[in-house]
Fold each of these.
Amino acid sequence: MSVDYVIADPVIASVAARAAIDTAGVVRLEPGLRGLVTAWTRAARQRWKGLDPAPADGVRVRTTDGRVTVEIDLVTASADQAAAVGRAVQRAVGRFVTEQTGLVVDEVSVSIMDIENR
């Protein structure tokens, strides 16, 4: 007997957001205009279903055939090299999403939206 399960993209996005924000050098996730529209739509759909929206601003997820693509928009601290923070986020998100969901992460794209003096 096989048991199939589906993990919704908003859940994966929330897991990815948690991994990204916990990475050293990340100040915050930054949704940008497209991310704001996506987050608003997701939150409205979850509230309509009676659920509390999972925090995932700045994260977009696409799942195809059980493989996951994650896009993250974030702000880094000026004390850290932005490229190094981006690579660390890619590794952390890929590892954490796989650990928490069992799904294969094909790609994690990181966009540095701003660098803040900290």
Amino acid sequence: MSALPRPNRGTARPTAAVPRAGLVQYALGSAGMGIYVTVPGLLLLYFLTDTLGVPPWLAGLALLVPKVVDVVLHPFVGSVSDRDRARNGNRVRVLAAGCLLAVAFTATFAVPGSAAADPYLAAGWVAVWFVVGNTLFAAYQVPYLATPTDVDVGYDERTRIMSFRMVVLTLGILVGGALAPLLVGDGSGVSGYVVMALCLGAFMLIFQAVGVGGVRSLARAGTAPGGAAEGRAAEDGAAAGAVPPARAALAQAWSVLRANRSFRVLAGSYLLVSTTTHLVLAGLPYFAEYALGRPGLTTVLVGSFVAPALVATPVWFRISRTLGKQRCLLAAQWAFVLGSLGMLAGARTGLAVVVLATLVLGVSFAGLQLFPFSMVPDTVRAAGTGEVDRAGAYTGVWTATEAVGSAAGPYLYSAALAAGGFAATRAGEQVAQTAGAHTAVLLGFTVLPAALMVLSVLAQRRYLLDSDARGRPEHPATDPGAAPGTPREA
């Protein structure tokens, strides 16, 4: 890996820190999001293949097809939230609608007996409610993540905001990942999954409601200047009932990708990161049961994967103040490659190596979540104040990228299982898997994610903004040497 230029501290104008109380309240909203990010990714594929008897190829499609909707849905929600901000000064209206997510989350697992008896009906039930859940999740996630771009802060402060969010998100992931398998129990069938969804859904709802108040607080911390004219135009359009249709949302998505090279490169790399991390999450129950022969280890492995982020996130933040986000992100990506290959070795040598490799994955996972999300506002701010006024559109594209990755990862793993001849079962059934199926479980969980993360590294190396982002004025449209809407690349 060739050396990257050292980030320039430069002379960027100082910006005030966001008050800690408002920042904590904002970050707490991520606890509920962590549940939805984790539990379907961890258990839904396994629920389909090993409880409902859905063949792996069909189970993968049932999780992939609903995410296709997100390609249009997330940019659309982003455009709506931009109009909401122009009219009300914040994005709370759309955000509040997303608090109904717990209902759809529970319904996804509450497959009725008549549907559970038929693999195709079961897959259809899960897919339909998964679409509803993803829609409500987008309504919450997109305006929530767009809010830090609205706040008038600098390079390191944006990382600080996201580091608070990442710590709380990690707690949500840890709660979901550790408790969900315990609440489900062994061989409990659909009823165990319903109990799990009800308990974690209540947790989700409480913290989402707290996050709504946090967005209000963060918005009051100060919004980006220079958008009054665009805001009035958006408000006039909204007042006239001009809600952008799906076609307009796609056009907006294409517009931000075409106009902002730094954002385009970052999103392309993160698509591979999201695919890889969600593949590993979906594969954990299979790895624990079929590669290690200890299904009860799922909770331990999830804890080992997620818990290090509680310590690693503040450390990553401090290191990034010296080295910059890009260097740290590349280090996290390479660490994930090593951790994945370590899991392969651990499956053959013993549990101690598996746990150590999982800890390495957890430390890298913290960086993989912290830095890309804190770099998105950098790319938007560097493009000019006109782009800040459509931060929701950027966030819509970003979260759509993440959503596609969250579906592509389990789908790729299900495809590996299908290629290896993995046999689906219903709750309580015992089926001897073939040697090919065991090989697919292992290589799909280790070698495949390592290869995907290497591709992500190659894509991320094309990101050039970070080398001078810290020295750039926060509003480049006022810089005589910067063209509006065009980020200056190093």
Amino acid sequence: MADLSTNFLGIKSPNPFWLASAPPTDKQVNVLRAFEAGWGGVVWKTLGSQVKNVSSRYSSVDYNGYRIMGLNNIELISDRPLGINLKEIKECIRLFPDRAMIVSLMADNNRESWHELIKQVEDTGAHGLELNFGCPHGMTERGMGAAVGQDPEIAKMVVEWVMEAAHIPVITKLTPNVHSVVPTGRAAVAGGTHALSLINTIQSVTGVDLDTFVPNPNVGGKSTFGGYCGPAVKPIALKFLTTISQDPLTSKVPVSGIGGISTWRDAVEFMLLGATSLQVCTAAMRYGFRIIEDLCEGLNNWMDEKGFATIYDFIGKSVSTLTHWEELDINYHIVANINQDKCIHCGLCYISCEDGSHQAISLSYGKPYNTYAIKEDECVGCNLCKLVCPVDNCITMKEQRHGDEYLNWKEFQRRGLPLNDH
């Protein structure tokens, strides 16, 4: 069997799956149940000056029968007394010393507050700190959370304050509510952070109630922008993760990947793009702590199948395959192929190609059903027909290169080659 254990900045855990800083990690009873279920670690819900939360707090986007494709929340950092949190953290470490215990922090914006909070957390025996530079609601009005993560200079200053006092590994959590996470990531690394984590939630409005006219979640007839997470944000998280993995400075530190991880396949994708540990929130809230069994079993089976002994054998393996558009091979060309034996004659490929793409599928009316065929001379290889087809491997793409040599756009322009003549 594959070895799923991780060593993140010297913080060891039996598997790479940690619960992210969120409601599931807000108290001892939850964390102990998570550890008993098999989670490799937790990031304790953000500690700082005690706050008061509101009700309601969550809303969601459902799609095509799938509940909670995306989850929106307006919950703040821990609203429990600091002393209780610290006592419970210490007890969880005592009971499960082999699990990673990271504590998320968001102190008031001055050096003394950060230093005092760090000392108190380190006294619990915690293995690492995660700096919350990402919360997009509530705390930003106080100059915290995303207000720090959106300004590289402020982020660097706060990281420097933390590094003056921290004696355990420090992870800086980045906000996605920016054009690029790289500037703040670079600033945090320059400030001395040992690692990065991303993404935090995306500022959002999930919808408006058409009876009350109030956006969700409704708090006494009002609402506010919340933080969006769950499966819907995974593509955005992977993009930001890749930019961190490709940057010469930020790629020097390990990364904890966050954002819509719900299955072992999601986990593998994050690791292929550079993540060393994985943080899960929405899936645990949606399905419960026992999803860790599926995550570990699926990852283990995939690694065995591929011949990977440890997760370090494939972390970052896909990073170099993402490049600039100008570097892509113009001579590489594919066309669609319909397996008539598998076709159920639904016509979805024809409709999508005819109305939404390149009119490269012909329709032949017949009895008892219509048939469809690819016009190879018209097919641009866009993949749309394959994506809409409800039958696995009914539509496949076959290679028909335009030329043997590799030719990118820059070279195409340099040679003065002709553009399309239609």
Amino acid sequence: MSDVRHVLVLPDRDAAEEVAGALGGRLGVDEEPRLVRDALAGEDDAEDAQWLVLLRDESGRLDPGELDEFVAEWDGWREEP
């Protein structure tokens, strides 16, 4: 099995939590995604942080284009590995 990961970048924690909650219903993701705060360089303020939703996709079944469209609904994007 490969260790494929997808990184979804969201503007705030609320959006990241909504995306994480919607992944199962919309895209059939079974595993709980990891949420990670990504503070911008030199910034301590939580308002200046992006949030990452990390997904493992060992089977490679998630379509990158579909993930792009999905996360864009929350003003986010998918980072290329």
